[in-house]
């Protein structure tokens, strides 16, 4: 407990690389795409709002269009699927229904559900708080999907360099959804990519109090 | 490949619960805290900037102070360690050094490092882009730590309901660091917490084009 280092996940975390290339021409079927999203949405979410939405882009012409909106990054096209990960800026709208479901399933007492709804409405009435949370929740889900993809024998890479306005326009995405990142998933290329060195621990971790890192 | 469902990580993802209670009074030693941060910083990061910083709060009085800043949420105090996860709003400052290290280690060619630096400076000169990326990177690292904690026999829970101004003041955190979330980690309580239902897949996933979800 606490010091075990042998869970296969820990090796997977240490060996994961952001994929910049994929075996081109390989496809993923609908059910595998759904499995990846099922994995992703197991991430935690503030008040269980679940701001995350996913547009799965697999059509070769669509991937070319998406690549252009991502300043030509080739992995968008080579990936079997590139997800547009969207954060719902009006995540609160669905919350009453989501909480009702949890109450009906017996996993959330009604008074706690009511308190969550009140708190969530108070906090996320602030548009900037709602936007921050959309980015946070989508990122938690994206990380979960990247690790799950590795566990499924796939490779994944997140991209934040893209034109969100072009992405929304070309893929019929309403302004209520914020494109948080693109997530390219596919079959790993046999070329092994190098892992980039992480900052030394003393440059990122402090005990007890903050400091200049 | 692609359809394997038997990696232990996938079960871990499906069974993970955001811990709201911990076995109180149990502690984690420095090395375990370091291990958790080592896991977290294996997450991907835009241009390898690594905006994430962690303040590990373990002292009982400090945890009480942090709990107050988190509106009394008890898990902040009961956790063996509660991390203040900080995003460096001036993440670019360290990037030349970080890229040099990668070049010296032979994992990044110099021309690519130079191109990354130019691109990163162009993109993150915009303060709102830098702030968004700090939230994204910290969230990716936090998700990695939550899963790693589970793999180590621990439990974890993220909290976003706290007063960032109070947290910064009480824990000597400079304004260049944005408190992105608190992350409580400790020994799981024997009380099993219920997992909250996720949205049905057709309410979060679209193929090819966006729509009203």
What layout of secondary structure does this protein have?
Two copies of one chain form a homodimer.
Chain A: H1 8-15, H2 30-40, E1 52-57, H3 60-69, H4 75-78, E2 81-88, H5 95-104, H6 110-124, H7 127-151, E3 155-159, H8 164-170, E4 177-186, E5 205-207
Antiparallel strand pairs in A: 1-2, 2-4, 3-4
Helix pairs in contact in A: 2-7, 5-6
Structural summary, described in words:
The structure is a homodimer of 213-residue chains. Chain A is an alpha+beta fold and 213 residues long. Chain A has a single domain, classed as NADH Oxidase (3-Layer(aba) Sandwich). Chain A contains 8 helices and 5 strands. In chain A, strands 1-2-4-3 form a 4-stranded antiparallel beta sheet, sandwiched between helices. In chain A, α2 (30-40) crosses α7 and α5 runs antiparallel to α6. The longest helix of chain A has 25 residues, at 127-151. Chain A is globular, with a radius of gyration of 19 Å. The first copy, chain A, starts with 7 loop residues before the first helix and ends in a 6-residue tail after the last strand. The mean pLDDT of chain A is 94. Chains A and B meet through α1, α2, β1, β2 and α5 of A and α1, α2, β1, β2 and α5 of B. β5 of chain A pairs parallel with β1 (52-57) of chain B, so a sheet runs across the interface.
